[in-house]
Design brief:
The protein is mostly beta strands. It has one domain: Jelly Rolls. The protein is 13% helix and 43% strand. The protein has two helices and eleven strands. Strands 1, 2, 3, 4, 5, 6, 7, 8, 9, 10 and 11 form an eleven-stranded antiparallel beta sheet that branches. A hairpin with a 5-residue loop joins strand 5 and strand 6. It starts with 26 loop residues before the first strand and ends with a helix.
Length: 162
């Protein structure tokens, strides 16, 4: 057997024990949803965050330029363009190129889901026109402004970047 050792070139581990209990870390995504960033992957261009909504409604229509995975922690949500709904314990894989409109289902009127977004998201208006292109760097810019506004330290903000 060959011995193996830890690489001296790796990034430090990340551990945040209070992610669901500190409310000022959440930032608004839309009038129906807020998001809690967990990780910004600047090397690969993706991010991991928790999306939460406590009301029925449409979150946003969008197209992914890369795959997305989702794990539902609580509530019920879906995409208007599909006949399935995700409930607590549901796992979703979204391939690149799909256009869909995320909504919170009236069955529970809330949802909390962890999303791993592997690349840019193209937001669309009701006419199907591009209203915004969001990537890991635009997400970082928005979250940096949020952290500054609510008094979260630069050290905390930078701890989310890998």
């Amino acid at each position: 057997m060959l011995p193996i050792t830890a690489s001296p070139y790796t990034r430090p581990e990340m551990f945040h024990a209070d992610i669901l209990t500190v409310n000022n870390k959440w930032t608004e995504l839309s009038k129906h949803g807020k998001v809690l960033p967990l990780l910004f992957d600047v090397t690969n261009g993706g991010w991991i965050s928790i999306l939460k909504s406590e009301t029925v409604g449409r979150i946003q229509r969008h197209r992914h330029a890369a795959a997305v995975t989702a794990l539902t922690l609580e509530g019920v949500w879906g995409y208007e363009e599909h006949d399935w709904v995700a409930r607590a314990g549901s796992f979703v894989y979204e391939p690149a190129g799909h256009i869909h409109t995320l909504y919170v289902h009236p069955e529970m009127s809330k949802m909390t889901t962890v999303f791993h977004v592997y690349g840019p998201v193209i937001h669309l208006n009701d006419k199907g026109e591009v209203s915004e292109v969001e990537d890991v760097f635009t997400r970082l810019d928005k979250y940096a402004a949020h952290c500054k506004k609510v008094g979260l330290s630069d050290e905390y903000f930078r701890s989310l970047i890998r």
